[in-house]
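Follow-up to my post from last week.
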Amino acid sequence: MKKESIGKILLGKWDTRTIVGVAIGIALFAVLMVYGSITVFTNTNLSLAMIVPVIVGGLFGPLPAALACGVGNVLADLIGGWGFWFDWSIGNAVLGFIVGSLKLYGANIDEGVFDVKHIIIYAVTVVVGSIFAFGIITPIFTKIIFGGELKISIAQGWVASVSNIIVLLVAGIPILKALAARNARGRDLTKE
Amino acid sequence: MSKSPIVEFKDFTFRYSTQREPTLKNINLTIYEGEKVLILGPSGCGKSTLANCINGLIPFSYPGEIQGSCKIAGNETSNSSIFNLSAVVGTVLQDSDAQFVGLSVGGDIAYALENDNMPREEMLPRVLNSATLVGMHEFLEHVPYNLSGGQKQRVSLAGIMHDHVKILLFDEPLAALDPQMGNQAIDLIDQIQKNNNCTVIIIEHRLEDVLYRPVDRIILLEDGQIVADMTPNELLCSNIIVEKGIREPLYLQALKMAGCNVTIEDNPCNVFNMNLEKYKDQLISYYSSVDTSKPEEDKEVVLEVKNVDFSYDKFKALDDVSFTINKADKIAIVGKNGAGKSTAAKLICGILRPDKGEVLIDGVNYLNYSIKEIGQRIGYVMQNPNQMLVKDIIKDEVSLGLVLNNKSEAEIEKNIEAALKKCDLWPMRNWPVSVVSYGQRKRVTIASILAMNPEIIILDEPTAGQDYRVYTEIMSFLESLNRDFGITILFITHDMHLAIEYTDRAIVFADGQCIGDDSVFRILSDNDIIEQANLKQTSLYSLATRIGLEPEKFIESFIVAERRKRHEKS
Amino acid sequence: MKNLNIINLTKGETFLHQLSGTTKVRLFATLMLYVMMSFDLPIILPLFIFSIIGIISLKPSWKVIKPLVIFVVAINILNVVLYWLANPLCGLEYTGDQTILFAYTDYLVVTKGTLWFLTIRLLKMLTAFSTSLAFIMSITPSELAAGLTSLGFPYKLGSIVEIAFRYIPDISRDYENIAVSMQCRGLELDAKKTKPIERLKQMILILIPLIVTSFDRVGNISNAMDLRGFGKGKKRSYYSEYPERKNDKIFKLIYCLITIFCAYYIISGIITPRDPKMWLYWR
Ligand SMILES: Nc1ncnc2c1ncn2[C@@H]1O[C@H](COP(=O)(O)OP(=O)(O)OP(=O)(O)O)[C@@H](O)[C@H]1O
Ligand SMILES: Nc1ncnc2c1ncn2[C@@H]1O[C@H](COP(=O)(O)OP(=O)(O)OP(=O)(O)O)[C@@H](O)[C@H]1O
Ligand SMILES: [Mg+2]
Ligand SMILES: [Mg+2]
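User reply:
Got it. Predicted complex:
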């Protein structure tokens, strides 16, 4: 395998496959917003949709992941009908970029490379990314666009970060491992 | 005027970069302008790969290593570009659902024109023209979600007609179509070829259905190599067809069973034009002597569907449906695309519950049971295998149902070994599911249901896209399960061969209603039902009318004789 | 198919539906800028009224919209109440008004300024919502794609949106099918019978084939697109994008004027900051 330059990985390769990949990611995101939420206690929802940018990132790179997550969120809001929330969509795009950077640290779901080292780095990106995106970026944009109380926005952001971290760790790691395992053994097969 | 070659493979070898061995080996093949060629071969032999070499997806989309040369319309593909090739080759891919990329019928037909940045005013008449050609002009505003498989296929066809491409390439166009729709598709392809004077290449397992309209040449692939390249008549009369495990057309099977030695001069590739005079007496005497009397047996009812209605939102998918299923029945559920067959299957499994009416399992209303409980007695194998596969390794997939039901380790081992061996997957048990072909995946899903030892198995299109060898294997396996263990089997199928050869009873659906429930030979000789349910008369029917026998009696005799012969062999 | 039918896949009949995608997207973009730039009642209120008229003119299915409107209004009111609880004097910064209307405790007071600020903020949020709702209900995905292209976005971005909408129904049907087959094989999906952690595990079981089938399509779809010349040129036309008609020209004038006004308002606000801060307040 040729090593791809970091710049190239960051930008992604915008061929037809990537475009379709991002689009399918967005569609999946929207579907999971509707179906894939688990009710914990009575009124807190954990949505599995946040896994999507991680997968898109793993397959196509961080920028496609950011796009899938950002646009996916806009479309999910559209379909759900509650309008545009630029503040949250921007936060989501930032988050998508950070958690979708699997290729940057050498994990490659496509070829089955995802071991303990990658899991640890992944966990770090998830924690840092969620807090940065929802705990900092989103409240700032809320303040700029809609005015209001920074304290509240930050508190809301933190709640979102925590539930997001839980989803991305508890569900994300097993899914990524399973997907990698699927692809890893696909070489040099012999019948027994 | 001598015909000029349009597709030329010379010593062509191709290896996917992820594979160790080449998938296509040393292909030498020339197809001439205006020809209509059928490519046959077992699943996984490289048919789609060959098609992708012609339309340019190889090498432009799939990385791999090419040796030798492949010229399309005189240009070496590896020096061309996919855009140039797309002006010459129009492809309808194996999966017509994925191929429908537009948001409406009109939008999809216009897709290539949009990419050419053609102004909208110019686009409209062209789209209308193509749509009219395939009979979809009244559907331009429809969205893909509401179209049947056959309609989608027509739209894909219209979408590649604008440039008057020189080559039309179809990868298994019939796999998901009901029999009549299949005939229409073949007719359509034929008309388009005649009107546009283009070259047509069809990849398909359903030989008899393709031969409904004349074909110039048949190419047989096996394991990445060409093993035969001959006219349909030659192929049908040679031994290759049996040796290589290709399914013979039914009427030929009927002729051969009666001891007729069909030759090329008889023009055997079409039952309507075939020369039958000299075989007439032989056929009549053989089939009149078949003893069709059957011992009366008492049947024990295991499942009863009574006056069931079911609606998706507002759309009524099942309307007052009733039927019973007896222990050890072999039943074919047939009917047109969108008639409600899959819905009925889901209803039986309790995934959907009736709006009105009831379903009784062993006399008990099944509302008392959970889906999980019903699932242990009724196994459902879905149409699309990819939607059933959860685990990455074949063996784990097959054991999943048992694990979820908390069976003991020893039992799991025993059951999965038996299931895997019967589906011919044992040597591959440790392979990842993702690397095997579509046909093999289908077998994995069947194996995973079999491992649970259900009393009733419902198979949704078990043989779509399968080659005949695998098909026969699965079917005889299911038949033995039925015979030896009394397992009831329901096939949802568009394949009349399957219904004739392997089932006793047919339940016919049309537009959400059950319009027929009788023995297969009676259903298949009832013109009203055939018409209403988009079935088609089998070639046995045509054969019988041509030699002046009563079709119902003839089909029945054929079924009995065929089974007897099959059982003698096994 | 639950809940996924707010956006139409085919063009509707009413006046707003019949506008071209370009007009709808450009108008929406300027209106979003308009609503975000200020907290002035005379600026926000007219748009709020117009957007409600717009929604009514689209002849929506009230059954679909009603729960949505209730949800959004409730969430926003909750938000406003939270803001007030967090800082009862939050209007001060904007209005400079401290007149106390009610006082529950020393901390929990309702000032005139805060009340005013929170009401306007609520109105602003609702205006953003109603404008988006009118936009969503009037546009089809292909028009959205065409419109995005007209804003200068690369057409590939528009294609992403189109393809996403094309496959949402397919993927949700896949989801249902997968869930069904897993249930038959013994998976208990009843939310009441299982603990959240169990449910998470089951969701993972369903999610894996869903992800795999969804991304398996990518190869097929991109092949189909490649084979029909996607990405051939720098530009692309749209079958469903109507050419500019009379009404589009009228709206063109309208959104141009709005844009000029927004530019004037923002720039003048930067040069001579309005006092107190972008806020028109009648004492
Ligand atoms: N993209 C790919 N990468 C690697 N190997 C592939 C790829 N596509 C197909 N193969 C392999 O090439 C072989 C031939 O596949 P191909 O799809 O051409 O078969 P086919 O004859 O069309 O079968 P079917 O009738 O089931 O469609 C298979 O063994 C398959 O595993
Ligand atoms: N989940 C669903 N929601 C809404 N409508 C549906 C759903 N599933 C199926 N339908 C509709 O119900 C009708 C019957 O569908 P069904 O899948 O049972 O047909 P079928 O006989 O199995 O067809 P095919 O031979 O094409 O598989 C169709 O018109 C279909 O569009
Ligand atoms: Mg194939
Ligand atoms: Mg079906």
